[in-house]
Design a protein that fits this description.
The complex is a heterodimer of chains A (about 100) and B (about 220).
Chain A lengths: L5 H19 L6 H20 L1 H4 L4 H15 L4 H22 L1
Chain B lengths: L1 E4 L4 H10 L2 H11 L3 H12 L5 H7 L9 H15 L3 H20 L8 E8 L10 E5 L5 E7 L7 H16 L4 E7 L3 H9 L8 E4 L13
Parallel strand pairs in B: 4-5, 5-6
Antiparallel strand pairs in B: 1-2, 2-3, 3-4
Helix pairs in contact in B: 2-5, 2-6, 3-5
The chains are: A mainly alpha (about 100), B alpha/beta (about 220).
Chain lengths: ~100, ~220
């Protein structure tokens, strides 16, 4: 059975970004920054997902890496740390997707 | 224009102890040799919730199967040691690591004696800033001032004003002073933060995580 495409995994990362933004925007002073940051990174994830890398089938190693990174983001409950992860998660996920694709 | 040691107030004394932590020097030395991927590993682990090394190795599989896997193992270990500290100490240690990393990279191209930490810059007739600059390069006719941040969120109006004020005051004295903000975060995130700032920053160089090695290159 074929594994998921990298694009499908990146869609999951976009969903994780949305969850982090929801938590981060509870810091009222950072509402605009959080939403601008979410937009900037989800645009980038969507762009890679729609490109040649996104169409490739992910190896089990990439699936594991990206799923674990998303899981790690899900462990964040502090809104300040969520803002940090809003920027960190896409860097981690894109590194996995692009280095092993 | 002249440089001066910052006053040794309570904050400076406490922070000096953080800066002197051997963990800071070890992390900065490893990160000064690291690839971008390894720097992202350090950022993720030091920001992370998990302290299970095996889990992080699975999140970054390419780093641990590469020719530099040994360095990645060391970076992971030092990053986990930082993550293991309490939240407040972790935050201070991360900031100190970015400063030490910046100083070490600058010392590859400037005289190590010219690279200084926690210095104020004084100008004739201008009240001195309270906060010192994190790192300075004190070379005649080629001064530089750097503010260092762990994340893009650290970029704020105060920092941008202080850097730009120093640059313009130096120009008033016909002294070129290059100013930069060094951020251990992705350029994309830094640009988002900077775009929302109204403080002057057109002449302030951004050195994001992708460009850290340029600090060791020619003065910009």
């Amino acid at each position: 059975m074929a594994g998921p495409t990298i694009g499908a995994l990146l869609e999951s990362a976009v969903a994780a970004e949305e969850a982090l933004a929801e938590l981060g925007e509870t810091i009222e002073d950072e509402w605009s920054y959080v939403n601008d940051l979410r937009q900037a990174w989800t645009d980038r994830l969507d762009e890679v997902a729609a490109g040649p890398t996104g169409a490739r089938e992910a190896s089990p190693e990439i699936v594991d890496a990206i799923e674990l990174a998303i899981e790690e983001a899900g462990l964040v409950h502090d809104p300040h740390r969520a803002i940090d992860w809003l920027s960190t998660l896409p860097q981690v996920v894109l590194l996995a997707a692009e280095s092993l694709a | 224009m002249r440089f001066q040691d910052a006053a040794k107030d309570g904050r400076a004394v406490v922070y000096a102890a953080i800066q002197a932590d051997p963990l800071v020097a070890r992390a900065a030395e490893l990160l000064s040799q690291a690839t971008l991927g390894e720097r992202i590993l350090a950022r993720a682990v030091m920001n992370g919730e998990s302290t299970d090394a095996d889990r992080w190795r699975r999140i970054f599989p390419s780093l641990f199967s590469s020719a530099s896997a040994e360095r990645a193992v060391e970076i992971l270990a030092v990053s986990l040691a930082v993550a293991d500290r309490g939240e407040q100490v972790r935050s201070q240690v991360r900031g100190a690591i970015v400063e030490e990393l910046t100083a070490r990279l600058l010392a590859r191209r400037a005289s190590p004696a010219a690279v200084r930490r926690e210095r104020r810059i004084l100008f004739d007739g201008v009240p001195a800033e309270i906060h010192p600059y994190d790192v300075t390069v004190e070379a005649a006719g080629a001064g530089e001032a750097f503010d260092c941040k762990w994340g893009a969120r650290g970029i704020n109006a105060d920092v941008l004003h202080q850097l730009d004020d120093a640059r313009t005051h130096a120009l008033d004295e016909d002294e070129p002073l290059n100013v930069a903000i060094v951020v251990f975060d992705a350029e994309r995130s830094c640009r988002v933060r900077l775009d929302a700032q109204t403080a002057p920053h057109a002449q302030t160089r951004l050195v994001a995580i992708e460009q850290l090695d340029t600090l060791a290159g020619p003065r910009q």
